[in-house]
Design brief:
The chain is mainly alpha-helical. The chain has a single domain (7-485), classed as Amino acid/polyamine transporter I. It has 15 helices and five strands. A five-stranded mixed sheet has the order 3-2-1-4-5. The radius of gyration is 22 Å and the shape is globular.
């Protein structure tokens, strides 16, 4: 049987390139861990690890991203024979909440408008429960695959790859294709988040500027201006340099959300004034809801860093507790936001806040600054996948990376200008890409990992069917609405 190389990718605090530390020789070469696939790296044998004291001090930060949010965490000490496990249960819960409660929560009121008040209430709880289950089965499958292969930690793409490569029969040859599918949809969602951020910042800045009666420009002009300001920011390749900005973004998000929740629960009308359901727009609601819950990329790295890994899963585990809180926050934001603003709900609840009070204008600015910062952090992860791939298939010099970064910002600017509508953009990204990452892929992985048991197969076929129906109807409805806006 082939042996598998154990590799750990951390990012040096003083450099932007990943460092791969290998624990054994292998017949089957593993690329990288942590969504940094195929990056140029230096490989050290076990004997080299004895002199790594100074190097350990510089291996400080990792970035974890999910649905429009991010976490930068310290990697800590790296033992030669295991992945760094440094976080307590409480710290893991805080990281999970920070990662899950992203920009998607701000779109919940317009999502409830598309689904209707009480139908949306029921469906968001159902989607949340299914997504929570899918995160659980992804971690369980990852644990089983690590047990088989001897790996200490696998990222999402690696779990998909090795689920197939360690299975029996014809599935074994599908491992590389599985990794490619996961990484492709990860790239789509990450760049989709970047487009959402650009539109969000542009629209909120537009409201603040127009309140001052300075100029009255089209939203596309603001998108171009924001993109121009992002160009020098995305040229920063060092993760360490982004750490203070990450802390500031998380602080602004927290303060802004508190102010929004306090505002929403005041002077509410009776629930009978809002439609209970809106069947025609349910596909749009699905895309926006699944966008908000697509934080599945966080669970594997967070689980791997826990001191008490057994506390992560289980009915009262850290994962279920964190997702229960997240579902409650999303449901409350959507329910009270739609109840308060009704059919006037906009792509982000910040756009519904009054423009004649500086408290609310400051909230718009808080989130605008926060998401401007987050753009660079969301941009970081796909760059670590795409750029090494480009380099491996060309002979271009490293300095062309800056040109490549510039081009990608221009591309996101163009896409954002084509669809300058937050609600439709979020729905399209959620339905098209997040359906696979949050629902379909975990169900496939569990079936391949644990075999064709009848009950397990039936359950996962239902999840896959829900994901495919949401993908098809949500993508079609989003595209249809986008076409109508031209």
């Amino acid at each position: 049987m082939s042996s598998y190389n154990r590799e750990h990718v951390l990012l040096r605090a003083d450099e932007s390139s990943p460092l791969v530390v290998s624990g054994s020789n292998s017949e089957t070469e593993t690329n990288n861990i942590g969504n940094v696939q195929g990056s140029p790296s230096v490989t050290y044998s076990p004997s080299d690890l004895e002199n790594m004291d100074e190097r350990k001090k510089s291996l400080e930060y990792e970035i974890l991203t999910s649905s429009g949010s991010h976490i930068i965490v310290r990697s800590g000490e790296l033992p030669p024979d295991s992945f760094a496990a440094t976080t307590t249960n409480t710290e893991t819960l805080m990281h999970l909440l920070k990662g899950m409660v992203g920009t998607g929560i701000l779109a919940m009121p317009v999502a409830f408008k598309n689904g209707g008040l009480w139908v949306s209430f029921a469906v968001i709880l159902t989607i949340g429960a299914i997504c929570t289950h899918c995160m659980n089965i992804l971690v369980k499958s990852g644990n089983e695959i690590c047990r088989r292969t001897g790996d200490h930690h696998l990222d999402y793409a690696s779990v998909m790859e090795k689920a197939f490569s360690t299975s029996t029969g014809i599935y074994r040859k599908w491992g590389n294709a599985g990794r490619l599918f996961v990484n492709t949809f990860l790239i789509i969602t990450q760049y989709g988040f970047c487009c959402v951020y650009t539109v969000f910042v542009a629209q909120n800045i537009k409201q603040v500027v127009e309140y001052q009666d300075i100029v009255s420009w089209d939203a596309k002009i603001y998108i171009v201006i924001v993109s121009a300001l992002l160009v020098p920011y995305v040229m920063v390749k060092s993760l360490k340099a982004l750490v203070p900005f990450s802390t500031l973004a998380n602080l602004l998000n927290s303060v802004g959300l508190v102010i929004i929740f306090v505002t929403l629960v005041q002077d509410l009308p009776d629930s009978s004034t809002r439609p209970y359901y809106n069947v025609a727009q349910l596909p749009l609601f699905f895309g926006q809801a699944i966008f908000a819950f697509e934080g599945i990329g966080l669970v594997l790295p967070l689980h791997s860093k826990m001191k008490e890994k057994d506390a992560f899963l289980g009915k009262a585990g850290v994962l279920n507790l964190g997702l229960t809180i997240t579902i409650a926050l999303y449901t409350a934001m959507g329910f009270y936001g739609y109840l308060k603003y009704g059919e006037n709900c906009k792509g982000s609840v910040t756009l519904n806040l009054p423009n004649d009070q500086w408290l609310y204008l400051s909230v718009k600015l808080m989130f605008a600054v926060s998401l401007f910062i987050s753009y660079g952090l969301q941009f970081y992860v796909p760059m670590q996948i795409v750029w090494p791939f480009v380099k491996s298939h060309t002979t271009i010099h490293d300095r062309w990376e800056y040109v490549f970064r510039f081009v990608l910002v221009i591309v996101t600017c163009g896409l954002s200008s084509l669809v300058p509508h937050l609600d439709l953009l979020i729905s399209l990204i959620g339905a098209f890409a997040s359906s696979f990452l949050a629902l379909i892929f975990p169900a496939v992985i569990e079936c391949v990992t644990f075999g064709p048991k009848k009950s397990l197969l039936l359950k996962n076929l239902v999840i896959i069917l829900i994901g495919l129906v949401g993908f098809g109807t949500g993508t079609y409805s989003s595209m249809s609405e986008i076409v109508k806006t031209f």
